[in-house]
């Protein structure tokens, strides 16, 4: 996203024995390539590689010039324990599916960051005993995939848990120290004032631990926002919070500030168009902000019908667009001009038709992993649920597995 620069206030590289062996992220058996510039990791849009009808990363790279992806989300196991999983169900230790996606991206000259946390689910900071054990769990992810970047997405319900946030911030500091050059972003909800009480408490925890990531990013959506003007106002207010919390001047605060938007229709019915993204991009670049990203590439394509019947989808934007329109703003933030001609697309295998699962019932009780069909899509329960309509909210209990 921004020019490669040293992180102001970054801790010196040391080895903390409690966190495990120092990782040499530039070379391991996972096929890691040389790191991209930090600007690319700062521009990486979120991609769910296992859910929400994952798009072809190679095709996005061909169409837009995008090089970096923010893969989401690493959580604690649904059944309990302090070990990393994808979405609470797929153990990182035995993963081959996400590794395949990463290999494809790296083979085309790109790279990935991994995001931990997100909205809902059980976070490792909630279940691991302390910061050291939390860091050790995340170190498994860094080592397996040879990561050069990681994102701490700290939001509900975790950021309301003081002990969990202490573990996460402590783990982030340990990882930063044990993995020299690791790009670390921290993402948290935004409000009109910048961020809310819990976000401010998280910043105070970082200050108390002496932890300075590459950036603190806010998500100015789902909080009564209306277009780009409300978002840039929140970013201005958040800058003031960073100044007052850490004692930074305005320029230093912007150099540690990031934006994480939501393309198209938000969960609460706000709309953010391509024009809004351009306005926020202009604000971010003119203020030398550190990060510009969005949720998500899975949604960076047009719904049919365009408004998706007035609901928010995990697989399309609900606004009129060409495929990957929003990814091009990330490419611009990285300092690259997106292609103006249509490239030869990467061949995509013809998908095998998926049969529909048993129809969803309003009276039935479902637990994590149960599958149903509704509105010609299959859905998988993320946790216990009853009488919650699949697709009513992207953050609800149902994960869209695609058309059937």
Question: In a few lines, what is going on in this structure?
Answer:
This protein is α/β, with parallel strands linked by helices. The chain is built from 11 helices and 17 strands.
How is this fold's topology laid out?
Elements: H1 38-43, E1 46-47, H2 57-64, E2 68-75, E3 85-86, E4 90-91, H3 97-107, E5 111-117, H4 124-127, H5 131-145, E6 149-153, H6 162-178, E7 183-189, H7 197-209, E8 215-219, H8 227-246, H9 250-255, E9 257-262, E10 264-265, E11 271-272, H10 274-286, E12 291-295, H11 327-333, E13 365-366, E14 371-374, E15 377-381, E16 385-386, E17 398-403
Parallel strand pairs: 1-2, 2-5, 5-6, 6-7, 7-8, 8-9, 9-12
Antiparallel strand pairs: 2-3, 3-4, 10-11, 13-16, 14-15, 15-17
Task: Walk me through this protein's architecture.
It is built from eleven helices and 17 strands. It has 404 residues and is an alpha/beta fold. The strands form four sheets. Strands 1, 2, 3, 4, 5, 6, 7, 8, 9 and 12 form a ten-stranded mixed beta sheet that branches. It has a three-stranded antiparallel beta sheet with strand order 14-15-17, with no helix packed on it. A two-stranded antiparallel ribbon has the order 10-11. Strand 7, helix 7 and strand 8 form a beta-alpha-beta unit. Helix 5 crosses helix 6 (162-178). The two termini are 38 Å apart. The model is unreliable at 1-30 (pLDDT under 50).
């Amino acid at each position: 996203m921004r020019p490669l620069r040293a992180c102001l206030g970054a801790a010196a590289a040391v080895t903390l024995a409690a966190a495990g062996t120092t990782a040499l992220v530039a070379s391991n058996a996972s096929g890691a390539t040389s790191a991209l510039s930090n600007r690319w990791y700062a521009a990486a849009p979120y991609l769910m590689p296992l859910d929400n009808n994952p798009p072809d990363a190679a095709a996005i790279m061909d169409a837009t010039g995008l090089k970096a992806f923010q893969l989401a989300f690493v959580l604690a196991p649904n059944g309990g324990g302090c070990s990393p999983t994808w979405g609470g169900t797929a153990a990182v230790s035995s993963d081959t599916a996400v590794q395949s996606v990463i290999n494809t991206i790296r083979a085309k000259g790109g790279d990935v960051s991994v995001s931990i946390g997100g909205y809902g689910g059980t976070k490792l900071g909630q279940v691991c005993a302390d910061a050291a054990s939390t860091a050790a769990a995340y170190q498994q992810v860094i080592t397996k995939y040879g990561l050069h970047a990681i994102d701490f997405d700290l939001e509900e319900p975790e950021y309301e848990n003081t002990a969990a946030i202490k573990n996460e911030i402590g783990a982030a500091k340990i990882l930063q120290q044990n993995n020299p050059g690791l790009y670390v972003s921290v993402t948290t909800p935004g409000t009109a004032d910048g961020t809310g009480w819990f976000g401010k408490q998280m910043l105070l925890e970082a200050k108390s631990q002496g932890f300075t990531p590459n950036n603190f990013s806010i998500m100015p959506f789902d909080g009564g926002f209306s277009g780009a003007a409300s978002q840039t106002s929140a970013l201005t207010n958040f800058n003031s919070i960073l100044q007052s919390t850490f004692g930074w001047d305005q320029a230093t605060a912007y150099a540690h500030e990031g934006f994480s938007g939501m393309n198209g229709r938000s969960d609460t019915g706000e709309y953010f168009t391509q024009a809004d993204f351009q306005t926020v991009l202009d604000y971010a670049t003119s203020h030398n902000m550190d990060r510009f990203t969005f949720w998500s590439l899975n949604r960076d394509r047009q719904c049919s019908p365009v408004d998706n019947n007035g609901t928010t989808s995990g697989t399309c934007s609900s606004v009129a667009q060409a495929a990957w329109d929003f990814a091009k703003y990330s490419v611009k933030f990285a300092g690259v001009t997106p292609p103006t001609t249509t490239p030869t697309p990467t061949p995509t295998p013809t998908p095998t038709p998926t049969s529909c699962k048993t129809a969803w019932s309003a009276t039935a009780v479902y637990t994590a992993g149960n599958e149903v069909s509704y509105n010609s899509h299959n859905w998988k329960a993320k946790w216990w649920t009853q009488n919650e309509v699949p697709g009513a909210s992207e953050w609800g209990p149902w994960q869209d597995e695609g058309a059937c």
